[in-house]
Design a protein that fits this description.
mainly alpha; elongated; about 150 residues; two-stranded antiparallel ribbon; about 5% strand; 7 helices; disordered C terminus; 2 domains
């Protein structure tokens, strides 16, 4: 076995301070000194060295931030597919406009059909819901309402 010396020698700490004052990033300092970026961040924190506030605006308390937030895209997609918490039942998903990766466009459902690399591999190609990558049928399969809540309750 061989002995490993301390990571932060006096010389390394001095290099760290001088590079920090010169404005080098933590990644650049780590490369110069020969330690990991996380080691540099930890040592700077322990030394109390900071670069100042990046965000000059004070943060709002959590309650106020939550009140100002808007529904997420996923919530909007789920709302368009589910009514009153139940899925909108329709006909089975039929991919009438199947297309290859090269034919796939913004107005094509991106649901993969078959196994990648297989001869019959393609994408659904139906018209997707607005702002969603999938058509209504595949959105219903991809996003299930309350699935996180069921997992959390066990």
């Amino acid at each position: 076995m061989f002995a490993i010396g301390p990571t932060w020698t006096t010389e390394r700490v001095e290099h760290l301070k001088s590079h920090f004052e010169a404005g080098l990033s933590c990644r650049e300092i780590a490369a110069e000194i020969g330690v990991s970026r996380n080691a540099v961040i930890g040592k700077l924190s322990r030394l109390g060295l900071t670069r100042g506030e990046f965000n000059a605006e004070p943060r709002l308390p959590k309650k106020e931030r939550a009140a100002k937030s808007t529904p997420r895209l996923q919530f909007q997609m789920l709302r368009s597919v589910y009514e009153n918490g139940e899925p909108v039942l329709g006909a089975p998903v039929v991919s009438e406009h199947r297309c290859s990766l090269l034919e796939l466009g913004k107005q094509s459902c991106r649901w993969p059909i078959s196994t990648p690399g297989a001869e019959d591999f393609c994408f659904c190609g139906n018209t997707p819901l607005e702002g969603a990558p999938y058509c209504a049928g595949h959105t219903r399969l991809a996003y299930r309402a309350g699935s996180r809540a069921r997992v959390a309750r066990g």
